């Protein structure tokens, strides 16, 4: 088994942190995992991408070739990455708060989940936890990593004062996805 995940957005959305948490959560779930990161020219507000590979055997190549999942957090990332990959087998989890036009991927992906993730994170008190909310959604949809392992990975990745709100975001994302999958 080899599962390839892209997480994309702009600097400041926590894309790199999300990749690190997902990688650690996969390892806690007894998988092999690797992650690589790509930054735009600016550290903040430039394009950012995390590529995570999760496998039941050692990862021989750490880059995503044909994504199984794509967590996309802004319009620019969707527009930029849509032509670069074949998304026919890809499950896309898109932040519909930040993305208004889905034309580049509409009817070209396996499944498209449109979630107002940033709005939901703001309801929790901080839009900066949108990344963890998206990982909670990914957890429920994919079944690859558990919310418990995500929360354990958060403990070792974020500062202690931010653990609680990030954990709540994972839980809320998981709830949202369970509701989406019932529809």
Report on this model:
It is globular, with a radius of gyration of 15 Å. It has helices spanning 15-28, 75-81, 117-124, 130-142, 147-155, 163-182; strands at residues 2-10, 32-39, 47-55, 69-72, 91-95, 111-115. Strand 2 (32-39) and strand 3 (47-55) form a beta hairpin. Strands 2-3-1-4-5-6 form a 6-stranded mixed sheet, with helices on both faces. The protein starts with a strand and ends with a helix. The protein is an alpha/beta fold and 183 residues long.
List keywords for this structure.
six-stranded mixed beta sheet, alpha/beta, single chain, 6 helices, Pyruvate-ferredoxin Oxidoreductase, domain 3, 183 residues, 39% helix
| Major sheet attributes | 6 strands, mixed
On the 0 to 100 scale, the average pLDDT is: 92
CATH homologous superfamily classification: Pyruvate-ferredoxin oxidoreductase, PFOR, domain III
Fraction in beta strands: 15-25%
Number of helices: 6
Q: Can you count the beta strands?
A: 6
The helix-and-strand class reads alpha/beta
Q: Rounded to an integer, what's the Rg over CA atoms?
A: 15 Å
Number of domains: 1
Oligomer: single chain
The CATH topology corresponds to Pyruvate-ferredoxin Oxidoreductase, domain 3
Biggest β-sheet: strands ordered side by side in the sheet: 2-3-1-4-5-6
The second-level CATH architecture is 3-Layer(aba) Sandwich
| Spatial shape | globular
| CATH top level class name | Alpha Beta
Order of helices and strands: EHEEEHEEHHHH
What level of helicity do the residues show?
A: 25-40%
Q: Which residues sit in consecutive blocks of at least 5 with pLDDT less than 50?
A: none
Distance between the first and last residues' Cα: 28 Å
